[in-house]
């Protein structure tokens, strides 16, 4: 899809032409069961597909589920940590955890874990505090998670095996700490309704209180 045209940069006629071309392309696919799109395009793709009853999801949702060995429902349930922090039910502090030590050049770009996600979380839960961990399991597991944190926000974990990611999820579940992941939180922050659509192919839905 030409996202510029679909967002109306060339005017209404160009937008309608692009929408029609996109829908024609999708609907002409034989035996098509589901569209997988970039989450950056979800604002224009999702309304079109929803309006035509076409199931769809995003690469980041597919990867969140795949890299965690099928734990997408845990990440969706973990979003409830946001309202629990806002209501004072859980500590207003988020552990942002990345599974590797990649370069973080915050002077020239907005690093997702250090800059972008804290901004999103501050908007969703004003006054929230942050702690970061990068890398090894012992660092990740060393904090007293259940008492200190209202939410653990984990990266996509592309440097972990599904077994390693599963081990981290098991720790969170046994401690009862809400856990979500970068892609799920960013989708939710962009549009709860759109997130609700892209998890439907996995037979999941957000509770109505979150929509
Ligand atoms: S998603 Fe991959 S590259 Fe990014 S922080 Fe996590 S392990 Fe590192």
UniProtKB/TrEMBL annotation:
InterPro entries in alphabetical order: HydF_dimer (IPR041606), HydF_tetramer (IPR040644)
Domain Hydrogen maturase F dimerization: 14-66
Pfam families, sorted: HydF_dimer, HydF_tetramer
Annotated ranges, domain Hydrogen maturase F tetramerization: 74-200
Superkingdom assignment: Eukaryota
UniProt signal peptide: none
Identification of the protein by name: Uncharacterized protein
UniProt source species: Kipferlia bialata
Organism phylogeny: Eukaryota, Metamonada, Carpediemonas-like organisms, Kipferlia
């Amino acid at each position: 899809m030409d996202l510029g045209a679909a967002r109306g940069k060339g005017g209404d006629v160009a937008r309608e032409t692009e929408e029609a071309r996109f829908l024609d392309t999708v609907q002409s696919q034989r035996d098509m069961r589901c569209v997988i799109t970039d989450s950056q395009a979800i604002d224009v793709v999702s309304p079109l597909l929803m309006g035509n009853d076409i199931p769809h999801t995003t690469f980041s949702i597919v990867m969140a589920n795949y890299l965690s060995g099928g734990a997408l429902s845990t990440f969706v349930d973990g979003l409830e940590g946001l309202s629990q922090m806002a209501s004072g039910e859980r500590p207003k502090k988020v552990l942002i955890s990345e599974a590797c030590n990649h370069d973080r050049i915050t002077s020239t770009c907005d690093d997702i874990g250090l800059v972008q996600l804290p901004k999103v979380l501050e908007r969703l839960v004003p006054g929230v505090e942050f702690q970061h961990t990068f890398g090894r399991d012992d660092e990740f597991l060393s904090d007293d998670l259940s008492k200190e944190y209202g939410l653990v926000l984990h990266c996509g974990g592309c440097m972990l095996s599904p077994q390693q990611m599963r081990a981290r999820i098991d720790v969170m579940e046994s401690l009862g700490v809400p856990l979500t992941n970068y892609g799920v939180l960013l989708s939710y922050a962009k549009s709860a309704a759109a997130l609700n659509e892209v998890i439907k192919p996995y037979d999941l839905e957000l509770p109505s209180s979150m929509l």
